[in-house]
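Appendix B, Record 12. Input sequence as logged:
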Amino acid sequence: MSIQLPGEIELENRPSVEAKALRINLNRFIYGTFAEIGAGQEVARHFFRAGGASGTIAKTISAYDKNFSDNIYGEEDDKRYVTEARLNKMLDHEMQLLEDRIPREDNPNKMFFTYANTVTTIDFAKKFKGHGWMGIRFQASPDEEYSEITLHVRFHQTEARLQQEVLGNIGVNLVYGAFYKNKEPKKLLRYLYDNIDKDAIEIDTINFKGPLFKNVDNRLMSLQLVKNGMTDAVMFNPKGSNILPARELYKKNILTLRGSFRPVTKVNIEMFETALDAFVQEPGVDQSKTVVIFEITLSNLLADGEIDEKDFMDRAKLLCSLGHIVMISNFKEYYKLVDYLSQYTKKQLGLSMGVNNFVEIFDEHYYEDLGGGILEAFGKMFYNNLKVYLYPMKDDKGNIINSTNLKLHPRMKDFYKFFKYNGKVIDIFDYDESYLNIFSRKILQQIKDGESKWEEHLPEGIAEMIRQNKMFGIKE
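Logged structural output:
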């Protein structure tokens, strides 16, 4: 049985938070619970104030005391409460209670939902700005399985009251979007910021699942977060699931390889493997506590003017098939990437970089928007515990170029020597010279032109995937 959601009141294209809450309340088919921990009952409050909540809300709960919370939802192994695992336990528990206590036979037309959040707002000393997980499990018709949207937010305001207010707004937007925008996930994502200053809150992870979203690839939704300016970076694991950067990077050694990976080649893999071999030899680097990231910048994805989602997915699927964590970022400059990673760890950072890209970072034009110019950028970049693992290149005459003979603008030479002789630049010597002639852009053109022998320059299994899935405009 499918029920058309009624539009009982006239609404503008972007209705207010109050109008959204009221529309939910006046829909006699929507019924569920709210469970909110850590910042007050900010979401449920909007539904109570809008009027008509008795037809929508079966129960609200706030379990602030840790003992109460543990007795309701169970203890966490890591003793943390603002986690995705905690959110999932809340959704499981509250939905089970709803089904146990509200007989389906008496409510055959009800579409059940449960909304939950677990949040910590800014601390008294204003050192930690706060963050939280929120989610909704819901039905779009009474006889279908549950679908679910979960997301992680980071607060940017410096007052707890303001953070509570924005949490309430985004929570209402999520509930409203789940019921009224579920057929358009990309629009639903943008509408989460309705009536909210985008600078007030950041969404850095989101996942959709269930029958309503069976055709949604969460990697594409991650891409939308960066594209829409909702966050600066997103990550997904080899299985293609979005993962929280803070959880993945916290107190880890981090090695990053930036590239177009269009497609991923043998030289990309050798850059990663040789850099990692050198990276784990650094004092204090434990390989078991090391994360390797393959990063693609938004500017790279926009190389042709617009983001081609199939092209993006082709790159992502190939990297994931090789077992790698992928990051999509809005960090055109390397110093911004390093600054971002340094939020989560004080341990060793590494960049695996080719000589040509390394030379580019000494171009002063990249830093014209900084008051301190290149000095400020390099201060941010190398102040942190960072080393560059430099993969060589071959020039037009066949000479191998590395850190000892690369060419820089005369004004940059002494500047470069400071970093070179302080051990910040490490040459990679264990490389296959034949790989220095491999270029992704050349292979991409060969694929499009239907040429032969491009397969031999790719990691095992990649050429087969490209052919089977018709990637990168390959000809039949």
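The domain at 246-473 is CATH 3.40.50.620 (Rossmann fold).
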